[in-house]
Amino acid sequence: MKCLHADIIAVGSELLLGGRLDSNSVFVAHHLAECGIEVRKKTSVGDQKGDIQEALRDALKHAHVIVLTGGLGSTLDDCTREAVAETLQCALIKRKKAFDNLKACYRRLGRSVTPLLARQAFLPSGARMLTNSVGTAPGFLMRCGQSVIIALPGVPREAKVMMVSQVQPLLRKFFKSNRHYWHHSFQTFGLPETDIQKQLNHFLKDNRGIQFGILASPRGVTVTVSCWVFDGRPSSVKKISPGFLERAYMIHQIRDCLSPWLFAEGDRTMEEIVGEVLRARSWTIAVAESCTGGLVAHRLTGVPGSSLYMNRGVVSYSNEAKRELVGVPASTLRRYGAVSSQVAMAMASGIRMRSRVDVGVGVTGIAGPGGGTPNKPVGLVYGAIDGPQGPQSQCWKFHGDRAEITLKTSQAVLDLIRRYA
Amino acid sequence: MKCLHADIIAVGSELLLGGRLDSNSVFVAHHLAECGIEVRKKTSVGDQKGDIQEALRDALKHAHVIVLTGGLGSTLDDCTREAVAETLQCALIKRKKAFDNLKACYRRLGRSVTPLLARQAFLPSGARMLTNSVGTAPGFLMRCGQSVIIALPGVPREAKVMMVSQVQPLLRKFFKSNRHYWHHSFQTFGLPETDIQKQLNHFLKDNRGIQFGILASPRGVTVTVSCWVFDGRPSSVKKISPGFLERAYMIHQIRDCLSPWLFAEGDRTMEEIVGEVLRARSWTIAVAESCTGGLVAHRLTGVPGSSLYMNRGVVSYSNEAKRELVGVPASTLRRYGAVSSQVAMAMASGIRMRSRVDVGVGVTGIAGPGGGTPNKPVGLVYGAIDGPQGPQSQCWKFHGDRAEITLKTSQAVLDLIRRYA
After folding, report:
1. Which of these CATH numbers, 3.40.50.11310, 3.40.980.10, 3.30.390.10, 3.20.20.70, describes B4-175?
2. pLDDT for the residue B240
């Protein structure tokens, strides 16, 4: 039961001061885990050869697998190839197959392979080439003592394809790991992070080697449950990690305990779930938005196939638009103000009637930063729904900046639809 | 002219396999640069004390400044304090001031300070406490030989406040760096990354020590220009980096060369620029969307103060909605199909007339993945605008998945408004 560790080294000066983050490491870590390999460290360095070499030397001290991403292109600041070759003290050799691929690739683009572009065809001697089926620069894989070094292009699409089609099979063959990563996630909305933690205290205390993650975002709180499990050794499994039945029972218990706030499991989104419940009921929907400015409609229509249930949306930003587009009576606006449960309800009923759909939704609130008053502060939001089960409305008070408040509001409104259906 | 280097170490197991990225390092790197300190390496490690210690030891070998983020909370897996203390071989000592702050903080939340929570009040001996004015766990700063170690909470809001109000003044005092980071960025839309690069080839070849970054996203291509400059040494400046006038002249030249596609400089967004041009013209606007499903309206209303120009939006997803909400003639829909320049134009003119605004906008297209035909493939989009300068329309063909196509479409439509005004 060998525990295999990996380091990921992302190369690119834009990762240090350019405001870019090494997003490749997310899927690289995930794909390594599928091969039983656990990432212990992620590093980002600039395009300086010395910095890449230092990171590589640090990684070689303890990692079984080292994945470098980026720095394989044709411009002069791309020097991952050189850094690896010099660290391992081997030569860079022009590969015929790599060069032929480059020629074919650039021919399709109507260009010839200049000496600068040809740099991509040079790989450390002894390295196995990883073909790039969706771009120009090939990657490579080579062994160094007990470690395996893998270099992938920085372009996510290219690295992903290479990882799945070539790297994973090789790693499985090399290491034959009998360990795999098991994980499950719960998506909740409506209960703060600290209260979710309280709900789970019982599990957190006696976690039996299972890792819990509780991560809050404007979309709600995600609870992840994960552990490394070993295959084919039933007798020893129980000691180090819970077996299949135990894990299934735990998932069942957590589901029970989170159920009042649980809207999805895995990485499905609220809008996908809402789409599903609407389709299950064969209901059509229309949305009238004020403070969210179209975000609820945009999220609903972001789901492929949503034209089956989504009929229309209106962004009735001005009072005039609220009267004209969804028929909110001028007297209701005058009496209760645009941000009120009465106006949200009138918007929901108005759009439902005018578009002849099953479910009408209305939302109005103050997204800030301006526009708040002591009685109606920034973050105050009213949502309403009208449909076959009669009218329902809800009031929320959200914190954050304008973008956060609108995102939380859209999530709350979608959750209102989900619970209604 | 000392060059100061920093390492950033982000602590948290969720950064390795939880799908989370260390976003704190973006502003930490930026704030360090403002103090003349250049980040050379970013590392993410899990909550294991040994891994934090190893990363810290690696960093101590070469970095003048080491910033750790995360792992300062009260749960048992938070062990950044212990890792630093053990690496530097000093004790963790309970700080009265930190403990008093904790007590006051939890009292406001109606809780008392349990022994677990009290862990946050223990800091390495000799460390200077960094007060947390927006959360519970204090940070700390301590010297170790030639290096300065800074530990900040993982919560971005807390780390940001601490960085600006306490860390930056201390770093400026300690290092008195005469170097600073100069950068400028250009936001373009409408020209592919490779063509932008061609436009800039002249500058890239003779870059005079200036770093260029060319980064593509669905919102367009961002060109960044940056370098480290030294203050107060006018005679030596020219040799190592271009002086103020040279930089200003270069910016001027690049602006000229990118101008047909340039929509903003700095980190301003397209919707902010559109808001500005509408306000400058005192124009009001209304938007009729099909494939973008409300994203254009959402982005327009995402700008504080947008109620001054944004009157309304409609998401006329179904043909029925196109007829009813914006009066697209049934014959136009029949004759040209919902995805056509005629329908986009009818949507623009229709919403303009019905809402009595200065500018009406219409957009219709095929976001995919389904719904494409050989004549009208996925990614085909028509946008139209009607206003004081008469009608205009445009056709685009975008690549990518549903989310990318709608984001690119929204950017193209906003750009159409910007160019119109």
Report:
1. 3.40.980.10
2. 59
